[in-house]
Here is the input.
Amino acid sequence: MKVAVAGGTGLTGRHVVQVLAAAGHEPVVLARSRGTDLLTGAGLDAALAEVEAVIDVSNITTMRRQVAVDFFERASRNLLGAAARAGVRHHVALSIVGIDRVKTGYYQGKLHQEAVVRTGGVPWSVLRATQFHEFAGQLLAQVPGPVAVVPKMTVQPIAVREVAEALVALAAGEPQAMAGDLAGPREESLVAMARRLIAAGGARRRPVLPLWVPGPMSRGGLLPTGPGARGGQTFDQWLSDQQF
Here is the structure.
């Protein structure tokens, strides 16, 4: 099966492409470096010729609501429009567990993306997953200064590879609309994750200062609340596999 991967050169997309190829599918990478632009629509019609399914893991790094909404609006509508013209049978989008409870700017953009997918005219599935094992490192990289201020919150991190495998399995099947939440095998303190990452040499060595944040984020707002698949690799197992 020919499957297009929007954002196929990013962290998640690279794993999706590898899993597709290993399963005998033909991945088509949608990225500006490969001649397609989600924000303008350039190259999408040609790239989606004979494609049966699309997996959208495209992303933007921002905490600003309007920037996130604008990105996912334009990227999703261009992608879905081209998919409809090409006769794509299944559009699969990756989203995030808890975005309807923790309404940060970026999460508002992801909620908007889900709404666009629902009305995009292509049979669809949305998979909400929890934060990746890389989440603590990504957060630390954004915190300057001699002390790392980390929110006091509980997450249930999952391996990116396991998310990629779930996305590929979804794409190969029938559209499911909202699929069950996908989460890691156990809950973790984000503060403890950051400290263990630093101790393992995966981030700059400095003290970690826990910060209480008001609202649902500090009350388990990013944890799964319903049935769904659970990954197998723990954060500590992932950490031991890394070569820092």
